[in-house]
Write a structure and sequence with these properties.
Layout: H1 6-12, H2 18-25, E1 32-34, E2 40-42, H3 46-49, E3 57-63, H4 73-86, E4 91-95, H5 100-104, E5 112-113, E6 116-119, H6 121-125, H7 131-151, E7 158-163, E8 167-169, E9 179-181, E10 192-194, E11 196-198, H8 203-210, H9 214-223, E12 225-229, E13 234-236, H10 243-250, E14 257-261, E15 266-269, H11 284-293, E16 296-300, H12 305-320, E17 326-331, H13 333-339, H14 352-372, E18 377-382, H15 389-401, E19 406-409, H16 411-414, H17 420-430, H18 446-456, E20 462-465, H19 467-478, E21 486-489, E22 509-518, E23 523-528, E24 547-548, E25 554-555
Parallel strand pairs: 3-16, 3-17, 4-15, 4-16, 8-11, 17-18, 18-19, 20-22, 21-23
Antiparallel strand pairs: 1-2, 2-14, 5-6, 6-14, 7-12, 9-10, 12-13, 14-15, 22-23, 24-25
Length: about 550
């Protein structure tokens, strides 16, 4: 059998016109703003006209702790939506937009894989409808207005050494992490230390993903804290009169994007905060559209369940009033063996001993979803040809001991047909009662919330705040931000803040080195370990293998 790459499979597909996808999903053409034949924006005002329509069932797809062996969370999400349609259910999928940083770096895109993809995958993975450019422009407009205010006399008495707002670019560029700008003389700006975040780490991204309409967007943008004065008072975007112009740049980006899967299932792709440094979920508006249009809305949260799913459940669901009906936890036998100590080169060999050693990682995620958050879940084993019967049976037996079923997912190879078993189990779980609850109460202090997340979700012995973080916690409490939820910025490669601790480590503490408030988004960001808000490119970036021919056909994009 001839092997085809993801992009070759996607390019061989004959997509439906986006008008037909919209009509099949129940989107009236008056809400549709086409970007060519195969993608469109949907006006969020549609939600007001559908307010009386009951919501469908919300299904969250999450995963075990990621490894170089891969897990396939987006692939499973897309295949599950197609699988639900195969068994006669009306399903819509809601995903995040990919960032250019990972596309040209090492991780790759976020359009799924094999026969479970969203299309047009090249557009989705590159500029798409320009949302990220608008977010970066709004972020940088605020930065420019801030520095201009200081240059023009600094009427607000902003302390240049207490500026918290960074510039943003949607690229992995370590050179921009720490810079000095404003050089060249008095007329060229005020010299100061500065830096860039990747666009997906910008608070503007989080604000866009949590805002419900233009009025809410402007109110959130206005609350963004960019700096502190010499006497310690916060300075906001509203103080700089910036929120109106920022919202003007974001007015189209606020509208969710509609595309389709390879099998024609409607797909909303909107927003893209990373889950290791931001809240890791697609927009609330896109999720709500999927819930109104589908009997089942399938969505995913980034990285593992201790990051994306925890933030989805503790931040997004709490803010938006959402209640999931079921959770899918994606795992692969290969990744579990990696957690059990097998080098990547040897993962194709059967190794029940290593699999048994790696399984606690999966089981801890299962326990968190089931017993901490009170939600029914299923383990989706993303199938590889090298998986043996004995290995699959071991995973199934260990999960059954916890009262959780396992479904083999073959969506990469078979599309929706390979996701019907998973779809049947999801439908069954959605009918079960659940006792969904967040992992912590907002009334707790900042330190107590941090302690609760670290102990309950990561199974740490506790949390340690550096002296600087303790001072920041006191300051944020004085300013009245202590009742906000916590957004943990932590390595995605371990339950701990040490990327080298695989499996389900014990006997560790989590160190919080910095706390900062995202007042517009409505949460406190806790930076742990050596996590960075601007990634770098690897030694051999994916960009070296991407090309386009004279007909505009792109190659090398996975």
């Amino acid at each position: 059998m001839e092997f085809k790459t993801d992009i070759e499979i996607a390019q061989a597909c004959e997509p439906k016109h986006i008008r037909d996808v919209a009509a099949a999903a129940g989107v009236d053409e008056k809400y549709l703003e086409q970007y060519g034949n195969y993608k469109a924006k949907v006006d969020y005002r549609m939600l007001k006209d559908l307010a009386d329509r009951p919501d469908g069932k919300l299904v969250l797809v999450t995963a075990i702790t990621p490894t170089p062996a891969g897990e396939g969370k987006t692939t499973t999400s897309v295949g599950l939506a197609d699988g639900l349609r195969k068994i006669g259910k009306n399903a819509v999928v809601a995903l995040r937009e990919p960032s250019l940083g990972p596309v040209f770096g090492v991780k790759g895109g976020a359009a799924g894989g094999g026969h479970a993809q969203v299309i047009p995958m090249e557009d989705i993975n590159l500029h798409f409808t320009g949302d990220f450019h608008a977010i970066g422009a709004a972020n940088n407009l605020l930065a420019a207005m801030l520095d201009n205010h200081i240059q023009q006399g600094n009427a607000l008495a902003i302390d240049p050494k207490q500026i918290t707002w960074k510039r943003a670019v949607d690229m992995n560029d370590r050179q921009l992490r720490h810079i000095v700008d404003g050089l060249g003389g008095r007329m060229q700006g005020v010299p100061r230390e500065d830096g860039f975040d990747i666009t997906v780490a910008s608070e503007v991204m989080a604000v866009l993903c949590l805002a419900s309409d233009i009025a809410d967007l402007k109110a959130r943008l206005a609350r963004i804290i960019v700096a502190y004065t010499y006497d310690g008072r916060p300075v906001t975007a509203h103080d700089l009169k910036a929120e109106g112009a920022m919202a003007a740049l974001l007015k189209d980006a606020l509208k969710p994007n509609l595309v389709q899967t390879l099998e024609g299932t409607p797909a909303f792709i909107h927003g893209g905060p990373f889950a290791n440094i931001a809240h890791g979920c697609n927009s609330v508006t896109a999720t709500r559209m999927a819930l109104k249009l589908g009997d089942y809305a399938v969505t995913e949260a980034g990285f593992a369940a201790d990051l994306g799913a925890e933030k989805f459940l503790d931040i997004k669901c709490r803010m938006a009033g959402l209640t999931p009906s079921a959770v899918v936890i994606v795992a692969t036998v290969r990744a579990l063996k990696y957690h059990g100590g097998v080098p990547k080169a040897d993962l194709n060999q059967e190794n029940l001993e290593a699999l048994e050693k790696g399984l606690p990682n999966l089981l801890q995620h299962v326990d968190n979803i089931k017993n901490v958050f009170g939600l029914p879940c299923v383990v989706a084993v993303n199938a590889f040809p090298t998986d043996t019967k004995a290995e699959l049976e071991l995973v199934e037996a260990k999960c059954r001991e916890m009262g959780v079923n396992v479904a083999l997912s073959e969506v990469w190879a078979k599309g929706g047909e390979g996701g019907t078993a998973l779809a049947e189990e999801v439908v069954r779980l959605c009918e079960l009662p659940n006792s969904f609850r967040p992992s912590y109460e907002l009334e707790l202090s900042i330190e107590e919330k941090l302690e609760t997340i670290c102990r309950r979700i990561y199974r740490a012995d506790g949390v340690v705040l550096t002296p600087g973080a303790k001072k920041q916690a006191r300051k944020l409490t004085e300013l009245g931000f202590d009742k906000l939820p916590i957004c943990m910025a932590k390595t995605q490669y371990s339950f701990s803040d040490d990327a080298s601790l695989l499996g389900a480590p014990k006997g560790f503490t989590v160190t919080v080195r910095e706390l900062k408030v995202s007042a517009g988004a409505g949460f406190i960001v806790a930076l742990t370990g050596d996590i960075m808000t601007m990634p770098g490119l690897p030694k051999s970036p994916a960009a070296e293998r991407i090309d386009v021919d004279e007909n505009g056909r792109i190659s090398g994009l996975f």
